[in-house]
Design brief:
Length: about 350
């Protein structure tokens, strides 16, 4: 990795490591003058997201988050309509659904073991403090351990966090409450397979994200005439006084009737997709062309992080959006906004 960042022939890099490496790798690349596409979640904790925002401002490079929906033409058009309130009125509630519906099985319980010869376990752990190798962690199930992963809310959920925050058109909330558990499994996984996180904004509006990784129905299914229309299992819904919006289906009035969008009045904007948009921003050297900047990355990832802190501490938490710290909270809460880093792999504070 560091050899690639030092190579003058390399102009841009894509960071698709495990979550705990995302921020440090992105910062090293930016400091080396490389343009950066960093996968979701951009950060492993709130402190890291703050450093990414600072780096995007400081360094003369393009930094883009792996939030593909930000480059989707329909989402771009429909988000503008949600923000304007023209179709269904001002949005008062958003929902994000991450229903993997039985596709996340038990990871079991296994003892620690020697790392396989092909794996540099010390380097793999990078910024994380050192733990013995366990075959449960690698190559994928590290997602379900807080030391390296962020659970489903920080895995699939980042896409729905991003869309929910985008649609609500607000920053961080003033309160977060996250509950759930790891139901029906007796395994070593730490993160919940069933989870409801509620974010309350200063004006009283709300965003609710839900994980259901065991068997479940979808949400938002309804009758239209004599036909049943399937709802959403992974996606977003938005609610207003004049109706609601369902991902992939569009706007509906208060009687479940579709509200057509006037395509002539509201055409879909041009977009070349997330990767081409990244390259276009690089070629133009224009940070304004980045569809998913680090500010949005920090918000969507940060929502997952503060929800997970609420879940892990088992309590509702007040949050100050200006300082990005918890207020009147247990001392552990603010400590969990960052982590202890392994020597030589510290995430630097970008000034």
């Amino acid at each position: 990795m560091r050899e690639a960042f030092a190579d003058p022939a390399v102009d841009a890099v894509s960071i698709a490591t495990p979550n705990h490496w995302h921020t440090l790798a992105a910062l090293w690349a930016a400091q080396a003058g490389k343009h950066v596409y960093v996968e979701k979640p951009a950060s492993h904790n709130v402190y890291e997201g703050q450093q990414l925002v600072a780096a995007a401002e400081k360094y003369n490079v393009i930094m883009q988050h792996g939030s593909q929906s930000r480059s989707d033409r329909r989402w771009m058009r429909d988000m503008a309509l949600l923000h304007s309130g023209e179709v269904i009125g001002p949005v008062y509630m958003a929902r994000g659904l991450g229903y993997k519906n039985g596709n996340r099985g038990s990871i079991g319980n296994k003892p620690d073991a020697p790392a396989p010869e092909h794996l540099d376990w010390d380097l793999w752990q990078g910024p994380a403090s050192r733990k013995p190798y366990n075959p449960m962690y690698h190559p994928y199930n590290w997602h379900w351990f807080w030391h390296w992963g962020n659970g489903e809310i920080g895995n699939q959920g980042i896409h729905q966090m991003d869309l929910g925050a985008w649609g609500m058109n607000r920053g961080f909330p003033v309160r977060v409450d996250s509950v759930g558990g790891r139901y029906t499994y007796e395994d070593a996984g730490e993160t919940p397979n069933t989870n409801v996180a509620t974010f309350i904004y200063e004006d009283g509006t709300m965003f609710v994200f839900e994980v259901r990784n065991r068997w479940t129905n979808d949400e938002g299914g309804r009758m239209i005439g004599d036909k049943f229309v399937k709802g959403v299992d992974v996606g977003n819904l938005f609610y207003a006084d004049g109706g609601y919006y369902v991902e992939g289906q569009g706007f509906f009035d208060t009687r479940n009737n579709p509200i057509p969008v006037d395509e002539a009045k509201h055409p879909m904007p041009e977009s070349s997709g997330c990767w081409q948009n990244f390259l276009n921003a690089i070629k133009a050297n224009d940070k304004g062309k980045i569809p998913a900047p680090m500010t949005a990355a920090h918000l969507s990832s940060g929502l997952a992080h503060i929800a997970s802190i609420s879940y892990r501490l088992g309590t509702s938490l007040k949050f100050d959006p200006k300082t990005e710290t918890f207020v009147d909270a247990p001392s552990e809460a603010n400590a969990m906004l960052t982590r202890d880093y392994a020597p030589g792999f510290e995430v630097p504070k970008i000034a």
